[in-house]
Write a structure and sequence with these properties.
The complex is a heterodimer of chains A (389) and B (157). Chain A is built from 17 helices and no strands. Chain A has 389 residues and is mainly α. Chain A has one domain (60-382): Na+/H+ antiporter like fold (Up-down Bundle). Chain B has 6 helices and 5 strands, in the order αββαααβαββα. Classes of the chains: A mainly alpha (389), B alpha+beta (157).
Chain lengths: 389, 157
């Protein structure tokens, strides 16, 4: 099967599976992932290996767009808007999940670089499942407000932690550095250069953006700049995620009407994400699943534990009430999109153990997405966000 | 062709604290809901209310934040207006500050009409507020004002 035919089937089946997901009240991401597994080489085999090979390009496309969109959260205006509760809880919950999962994985005997990657992936939370529950039960209240803020912002912390951990993991694993000092220096240099490059491109972007007069040129200019940043980062072996994130962070803070660049992207990004997630599903190697078992369980438990304990301390530091302290941790259980994206990167960077990481994350994603909403529901009930009607 | 010579200076603006009920009442006799600037006490532009703003009522708090994360995969279509639960008190509880659009596209009155037109094209807006040097609201300019100006120049009207 040629690539165009493969992509077209993914898009068409994707529309259909999205509709089915809507009917059975499941997040679209889960549906795309399952679709990917079903039409992938292990089941129906619609999608041939040539299409799967295409996922490297698509995931770089998708992830640079994702990082660009998430970077816009780092504006002064947003930090004022979300308040200290959301900041404390999201930072500490992300850190808690990272710490617990890293320790858990090290205890299982996995190498440090794999543990670091698992830990960083654990920080991400998927908002889709959460929003569905909130909408379905018409939940309302202070707890819901804080929770929405936390899940909105924590992917940003997650992407930063992942980029930093990835830089460290690469230095440790590929023996580019011999001593710990070299590892730290090498990764810091990579991170610093990525940030510097993204910031410079962002500044140049804004300078010329004032000459753009219509939507068509705006779209081309924006997409062109994002891919230029991503491509340049790849060329110099820098972090694509960090470079694209800082690109939009600079834009959002120096351009007065920066929302136009993000709004215009929304006209084209959905099909790219759809292909990205279906290909993620198709990448799942069923035979590795057998080896995942115990790692998956430890990852699952350690992440939830870390989220709950991190949230607990975040709530204490921000002087939030008992409800937040006790119930906001489990409400952050769902995990999907960003985690899968990170896992796909890990898979492409570390060919041997990366597949294990990816398979474990894909498998736990499906479980998190199935039982996560249930725990969200419990926490919303316990905190009286859902009124009995 | 400066914006200030072609804009509408009689603008109906609202305050942050204007209630939903007052807002609906204000425009109930209009053909369609216009672009309404939101200003504070010294007339500084804070945001706008347009027809899309009404869909904000049905969205959870911080929804706009989540929209910034593409992977939240939130449907971008407006809520199904035929299937929403609206409680009686909402007309008084919801205020303009809750629903207004803070993505402000504005233009200074000294600017050229061509620039106003470009801005409207760029952001797909039919009308944008006009401000003075201190960001105080002084008028509003719509596509129709520009069309009229051109037609007048050509001797059509």
């Amino acid at each position: 099967m040629n690539v165009i035919l493969g992509i077209s089937l993914i898009l068409l089946f994707g529309v259909f599976s999205g509709k089915v997901a809507e009917k059975i009240k499941t997040p679209a991401i889960t549906a795309y992932l399952v679709l990917g597994i079903l039409i992938g080489p292990y089941f129906a085999g619609f999608v041939s290996l040539s299409v799967i090979k295409f996922s490297g390009i698509i995931s770089n496309f998708a992830l640079s767009l994702i990082a660009f969109s998430i970077g816009q959260n780092f504006s002064l205006q947003i930090f004022k808007q979300i308040g200290k509760q959301v900041l404390w809880i999201s930072v500490l919950a992300a850190f808690g999940a990272w710490l617990f999962v890293v320790i858990g994985m090290l205890m299982l005997g996995l190498p440090l670089y794999v543990a670091l990657i698992f830990g960083a992936i654990a920080t991400a939370t998927a908002p889709a499942a959460l929003i569905m529950v909130i909408r379905q039960y018409k939940a309302r209240g202070k707890f819901t407000d804080i929770l929405m803020g936390v899940v909105a912002i924590d992917d940003a912390w997650g992407l930063i932690m992942f980029s930093v951990c990835l830089a460290f993991a690469q230095k440790i694993h590929f023996n580019q550095a011999t001593s710990m000092l070299q590892v730290i220096f090498g990764s810091m240099l990579e991170i610093g250069l990525s940030l510097f490059m993204g910031a410079i491109i962002g500044w140049i972007f804004c300078t010329f953006a004032y000459h753009i007069r219509n939507q068509r040129d705006l779209l081309i200019y924006t997409v062109g700049t994002i891919f230029f940043t991503a491509g340049l980062a790849l060329h110099f072996h820098l972090s694509v995620l960090l470079a694209c994130m800082i690109l939009s962070t600079v834009i959002v803070n120096i351009h007065e009407e920066s929302f136009r660049f993000f709004d215009v992207l929304q006209t084209i990004d959905w099909p790219i994400y759809l292909i990205f997630f279906v290909l993620a599903g198709a990448n799942l190697e069923i035979e590795i699943l057998k080896h995942v078992g115990f790692i998956g369980v430890v990852y699952f438990v350690a992440r939830v534990l870390g989220k709950c304990i991190g949230t607990y301390f975040g709530a204490i530091f921000s002087q939030s009430g008992r409800d937040v302290r006790h119930y906001m941790g489990i409400a952050q259980m769902p995990q999907a999109g960003v985690a899968l994206g990170m896992a796909l990167i890990a898979k492409s960077v570390f060919p041997e153990l990366g597949s294990l990481v990816f398979t474990a994350i894909a498998a736990t994603t499906i479980i998190y997405e199935i039982i996560g909403p249930f725990f969200v529901k419990i926490s919303l009930y316990k905190t009286n966000q859902i009124q009995a009607r | 062709m400066q914006v200030k010579n072609n804009m509408q200076t009689k603008v109906i603006s609202v305050k942050r604290g204007t209630t939903l009920a007052q807002l609906l009442d204000l425009f109930s006799s209009f053909h369609s809901f216009p672009v309404v600037p939101v200003v504070d006490d010294d007339n500084t532009l804070l945001g706008i209310v347009h027809i899309q703003s009404f869909f904000e009522i049905f969205k959870p708090y911080h929804h706009d934040l989540l929209m910034r994360n593409p992977l939240s995969m939130i449907s971008r279509e407006p809520a199904n207006i035929f299937d929403v639960d609206i409680e009686e008190g909402m007309g008084l509880l919801v205020i303009v500050a809750d629903i207004m659009d803070t993505k402000i596209v504005k233009i200074e009155q000294e600017e050229d009409l061509k620039k106003a037109y470009d801005l409207m094209q760029l952001h797909k807006r039919e009308a944008i507020p006009v401000v003075d040097k201190d960001k105080k609201l002084v008028g509003i300019i719509g596509i129709f004002d520009i069309v009229m100006k051109i037609f007048k120049e050509k001797g059509l009207v």
